[in-house]
Amino acid sequence: MEWDELQRAMVVFAHPDDAEFGSAGTIAKLARDGKEVVYVVVTDGSKGSSDVNIISEQLILTRQQEQREAGRVLGVNQVEFLGFPDGMLEPSMEVRKAITASIRKHKPDLVISQSPLRDLSLGVFVQHPDHLAAAEATFAAVYPCARDRMTFPELLAQGLEPHAVHELWVVGTAQPDHFIDITDTLETKVEALLAHESQVGERVKEMIPQRAKSLGEPHAMEYAEGFRRIQIP
Ligand SMILES: [Zn+2]
Predict the structure, then answer these.
(1) From ligand 1's centre to the CA of 123, what distance in Å?
(2) How far apart are CA 165 and CA 221, in angstroms?
(3) According to the model, what pLDDT value does residue 19 have?
(4) Dmax over Cα atoms in the chain, in whole Å?
(5) Beta partners for 228?
């Protein structure tokens, strides 16, 4: 699908802030161009703190608030929290079904996902087990579960009709083949990341432009984000 044809996008990711690190420049650009963007946050983010004074319940609420604020900065239309426990995610049938339900409900043309693959050339942070699990469940939800009528009949009974996604863009891969120019939305990306006050420090102001520059340079873009693009016929 060409950019102009895309009407609806969904970003599925394990933790509050993952979407912003990987793809906030692209998300801001989608929203700015009038596309509907929905976030699906798979875990509750309840383990993301080393502060001894904070309890998980409080952290969950803080991170939901931060995620909504980051979404607001980017122009995201809706944020859904699936609420699976942080740090414990498996690509179970339950997770797959929950993501399938979100896809059938919002009918995205494009789904942006993390990578389900271990890649020994990459660092450990990008390969958090929750990222791998969320991505594996997302791939399975995109194809075949959201598309196939007879999978999860209980969803059909709730009025969630089958839906075929046309494109899957994968972030956090060492083999990106699709680059989006985010020169116009780089500042918005940084601003959205800074909304995650409990997670992200001022360091992103340097780190994000550096990374976007190195991705963009070989493709004649000042700043870019990179994806592995999978088109679904
Ligand atoms: Zn994460």
Answers:
(1) 13
(2) 28
(3) 98
(4) 51
(5) 170
Query: Binning pLDDT at 50, 70 and 90, where does residue 2 land?
Result: very high
Q: Which residues pair with 43 in a beta bridge?
A: 84
**pLDDT at 48 exceeding the cut of 90:** no
Distance in angstroms (rounded) separating the CA atoms of residues 203 and 96: 35
Residue 164's nearest CA partner among 149, 142, 138 is 142
CB atoms within 10 A of CB 111: 29
Burial class of 4 by CB neighbour count within 10 A (0 to 12, 13 to 18, 19+): exposed
Give the β-pairing of 78-84 and 178-181.
unpaired
In Å, how far from its chain's centre is CA 216?
20
Q: pLDDT digits over 144-155, tens only?
A: 999 999 999 999
Q: Closest Cα to residue 133, out of 199, 85, 166?
A: 85
Taking the C-alpha atoms of residue 152 and residue 145, their distance in angstroms, rounded to an integer, is: 8
Q: Is residue 135 within 8 Å of 116, Cβ to Cβ? A: yes
- Domains of the chain with bracketed CATH: 3-231 (3.40.50.10320)
CA of 159 to the centre of ligand 1 (A): 32
Exposed, middle or buried by CB within 10 Å (0-12, 13-18, 19+), for 23? buried
Task: Using the mean position of ligand 1's atoms as its centre, give its distance from the Cα of residue 224 in Å.
Answer: 20
Ligand 1 centroid from CA 134, angstroms: 10
